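Q: Hi! New to this. If I give you a protein sequence and the SMILES for magnesium ion, can you show me the bound structure?
A: Yes, paste them in.
Q: Okay, here:
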Amino acid sequence: MIRIENLSKDYKTVHALKGVSLHIPKGELFAYLGPNGSGKTTTIRILTGLTIPGKGKAYLNGYSIQTDPLQAKMQCGLVPQHINLDNELTVSENLDIHGRLFQMSAKQRWQSIEELLEYMELKEKRRALIKQLSGGMKRRVMIARALMHRPKILFLDEPTVGLDPAIRRKIWSFIKKIQGDGTTIFLTTHYIEEAEFLAERVAFLDEGQLVALDTPQRFMEKMGKWALDEMKDGQIHTRYFNTRQEAQNSIHDQVNGFSLRRVNLEDVFISLTGKKVAP
Ligand SMILES: Nc1ncnc2c1ncn2[C@@H]1O[C@H](COP(=O)(O)OP(=O)(O)OP(=O)(O)O)[C@@H](O)[C@H]1O
Ligand SMILES: [Mg+2]
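A: Thanks. Here is the predicted structure of the protein with magnesium ion bound:
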């Protein structure tokens, strides 16, 4: 469904992408993780036709983004990293404008708006101005807007940033529902537990290059089952073990505090990219 071959992108002196290749089959929920500035948004912008690629090729549902850009664009919906709804318009007006941009007829737009307001539980907000909505509501409208033209692929660039844990989980259930309806999903997030919970496969990007790709489960198994965080000299040192007993036996006497916990995907992120997760 998504095929990327050796894709690169330079912004003057910045090498934002350095030859990324990926194949994501139909219906997969794929997470694309990496530190700030690693090239996630650049990849999404290229695939959705917002930025011209450098070298390499990419296909969405078989359509080349370079030689068939309009058809490629029709295949995908985008929820961008930053909220870009029209604040002075209502929820349904924002959806309607998107439908017009995709040349949907009045009837198609009306039908799609009705279905999506229901689907995203926004019915009572149809006449609310965007500026009157909470952050969680706006994110839901962004997802509804991206689905207006019934894309086969949905790009979600940090769809839950800044949302409280309950609303974030609500968005997760919508994402699962959209995937359940057959849509291929390409997700970026800094909430690593989101990828752990949602994604079938995860790729880690670092400084414009793919460093690893696997299922969340296999990534975590490779680290060990238990993580021991120890506070020493003002810093956290983490070590990994296969059994709880091994971890307990190795707790140092001189530590100021420790926590023994199950390994999670954030440990994988830090070990692969060598950096802390962005706040
Ligand atoms: N329009 C632009 N002009 C110049 N440099 C850019 C532009 N857009 C992105 N970059 C640079 O390209 C690199 C990749 O940026 P990108 O936005 O793709 O990262 P990201 O992985 O999405 O980061 P974040 O997690 O912070 O959203 C960064 O070094 C960034 O500064
Ligand atoms: Mg980004």
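A: DSSP finds ten helices and 13 strands in the chain. Let me know if you'd like me to explain how to read the tokens.
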